[in-house]
Amino acid sequence: MEIANKLEIHYYLANDEHSMNALVRNKCEAELLAIFKEVCATFDIDLPVETLAYREGGLKEIWKFLGENGVQIQTILAIFTLVLTIASIVLSRIPLSDVEKDQREKELAELSIEEKRLSIEEKRLAIQKLKKEMTSGEVAPETIELGAKAAAQNLKIHARKSNFYRLLDQYPKVTGIAFSQLGQDNTPVSNERFVPRADFKKHILLTNDLLVESIEGAMVEIISPVLKGGNYHWKGVYQGKPINFVMTDAEFKNSVLRKEVSFQHGSSIECVLQVSRKLDEFGEVVVTGYSVPTVIQKVDGDLKFETTQGRRYRAHRKFKEAQIDLFTAAVRAKEL
After folding, report:
1. Tell me, what's the pLDDT at 230?
2. Mind giving me the DSSP string for 295-324?
3. Which terminus of the chain, N or C, has less C-beta within 10 A?
4. Is 155 within 8 Å of 285 (Cβ atoms)?
5. CA-CA distance, 313 to 307, in Å (whole number)?
């Protein structure tokens, strides 16, 4: 891996021009800086960046990365190189192929689940492996892919990258964008990663909606039930926080309307709580709503009243768990 400490962002412009709309370029720079901040945060690295003078050919912008004082220069340069390589991969790699284009939203949605699977300890061990190889000066291609995968799990990077390419897609003067790693003498140390204008849309998220998170056995204290028909929101408290939710369990809702179920101070429901979420423009996960498709039981202090749909729900869950156990046993038997 050749040493690099600069990144060149090359905007290819129509008609061999060398100028861009200042507002568009500044917005693009803001998104790129946010992406690099998140790439560095993934590896617990602080790399201040300076902008060098622009160069023509459409328009070339060079960022120079600065290391912390007291760190050996070779280690600093190795960190530069790895981060720049990973950032270039993240910025230029199309999320999924054209054939799988309709699955990109699902891919984004599942990232939030994947992030939870990657524990703090696993991240720490991955970072240690990366830094050890960087210090030795021998970074394996698999390590770079590991770094790119770790960065790709960052939802903020996905949102910012989408913002970046949306800005370019709306500005017809840009015919392509490329990223190159440069050495200390400003010479390229790797091949330019070029993204043609035709591929901009492939990097833009078609939706910022995440998978609905389904929480089984959630305990919600009822503050204000809805005692009449219509799509009104119930009010409750979940994990100490007030929430408004839609009661979509028709059986339970009708039981309340028929006054077969009543509530008192401290009444709660054990339920399946669905949480709708999306990414905002900064890549932060924002809750957009709550709903309750199944009430398992109503709880009044020590008294618990299981619902009919609750019994069906528990029976169905046991059936699924039994199927999984049988499948696991079959796989193990086959392995033996």
Report:
1. 79
2. EEEEEETTEEEE-HHHHHHHHHHHHHHHHH
3. C
4. yes
5. 10
Q: Is the CB of residue 180 less than 8 Å from the CB of residue 2?
A: no
Structure tokens at 153: 């799990």
Q: Name the residue type at position 18.
A: H
Closest CA to 34 of 197, 163, 126, 153: 163
What lies within 8 Å, CB to CB, of 170 at 6+ separation is none
Amino acid present at 303 = L
Please report, in angstroms and rounded to a whole number, the separation of the first and last CA atoms in the chain. Answer: 44
Could you give the CA distance from residue 211 to residue 279 in angstroms, rounded to a whole number? 11
- If pLDDT is split at 50, 70 and 90, which confidence band does 149 have? low
Span 16-27, mean pLDDT? Answer: 91
Between strands 55-56 and 59-65, the pairing is: antiparallel
> What is the C-alpha to C-alpha distance for residues 293 and 309, in angstroms, rounded to an integer?
10
What's the pLDDT at 72? Answer: 42
Tell me the mean pLDDT in the region 246-270. 92
Strands of the chain, DSSP E: 6-13, 49-51, 55-56, 59-65, 174-182, 193-196, 213-224, 234-238, 241-247, 268-279, 285-300, 303-306
Closest to 262 in 3D by CA, of 301, 300, 231: 300
Nearest to 287 by CA among 205, 218, 213: 213
Rg (CA), the chain: 26
CA dist., res. 8 & res. 188, Å (int) = 9
Between the CA atoms of 223, 224, 227 and 228, what dihedral angle is there, to the nearest 10 degrees? -150
Going from the C-alpha of 209 to that of each of 242, 279, 284, the distances in angstroms are 23, 6, 12
